[in-house]
Amino acid sequence: MIMYGAVPEQLEQLGNTLKAQIDAIDAVLSTVSGTLVNTTWTGPARDRFQADWEGSFRGALNQLNAAFEAAGSDCVLRAGNLRALMGT
Predict the structure, then answer these.
(1) Can you give the pLDDT of all 88 residues of the chain as single tens digits?
(2) Containing domain of residue 49, as a range?
(3) What is the DSSP string of 36-76?
């Protein structure tokens, strides 16, 4: 028989750690966007980078943020449910 479970405190810590990464990713988004706007750089290389940044790069980072939020919230919720089930 296979048993499943988790230590609620560790699961909650994992959830909070995942959610804390959102701030780090937001900082990357803000820093790169702000620096790019204030950088004197013209030509096809900038156009390509800016298009990639505004398209796939930012999109991927935003998806990562959404995944961290969902997984982090799920871990915290499950930890609470385990505590309630265990009566702690």
Answers:
(1) 887 889 999 999 999 999 999 999 999 999 999 999 999 999 999 999 999 999 999 999 999 999 999 999 999 999 999 999 888 7
(2) 8-86
(3) HHT----SHHHHHHHHHIIIIIHHHHHHHHHHHHHHHHHHH
